[in-house]
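#struct-pred
JK: can someone run the complex with manganese (II) ion? inputs below
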Amino acid sequence: MAKNYTPRKIQKNNEGRRIAIGDIHGCYDAFMGLLDKLKMTKQDQIFLLGDTIDRGRNSSLVLDKIIELQKDSYQLFPIKGNHEEKLLLAYDCGLEFFEEYLETYNSQDLLCGELEEYLKLVYHFDYCIELDDFILSHAGINEGNINPFTDLRGMFPNVNFQFDEAECLKKTQIHGHLVRTITEIENSVRNKEKRFSIDSGCYLNEEGMGYLTAIDLDLMKLYHQKR
Ligand SMILES: [Mn+2]
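RT: done, structure tokens with the ligand placed:
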């Protein structure tokens, strides 16, 4: 049975910044470097756009850090990506399959950490966060498609998203999932695009990639941290 899900609405804090961070993919050092660069405070709202785990080799350290920041009452809002979803599905397929899954995605370190806690954590990640002026999710919402929510619905087939589609499409969408060079991301910002990805392929070695990107949503300022 599909579960109903309404995007989580979050109000802006008057003092802090609102910052979205792209796909971390287990790249713990880049995540730490970026947090350092941002000089995050407890007034800031930080949104992680999904795929915090897999591919890079330090998924457990990334999840440990998320748990730590939340315990320290930082305003950290992780969003679910296809990799968090796949991890949960793989776990439900039995240990042998799960171990194979972890090996495929360089995430065996999750077995050495607090696996139960990790699974519980990613299970509760939001699918989508709605701000006054932005929609944040892992995959984009495609205006012009027969169904503008095709990508998100395809990624989470067991979720019945309850969106106010017309309202959502008025807002700027920032998402992850689609790998872009930092130049492409900078162009998206410069051209004031209404929908773009800030996933700069942290785990990749290609030209213009291998970065973890963050965006300050009020200043539309980008921060790139090389892996
Ligand atoms: Mn990804």
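RT: quick notes.
The chain has a mean pLDDT of 93.
The chain has one domain: 25-226.
JK: thanks, will look after standup
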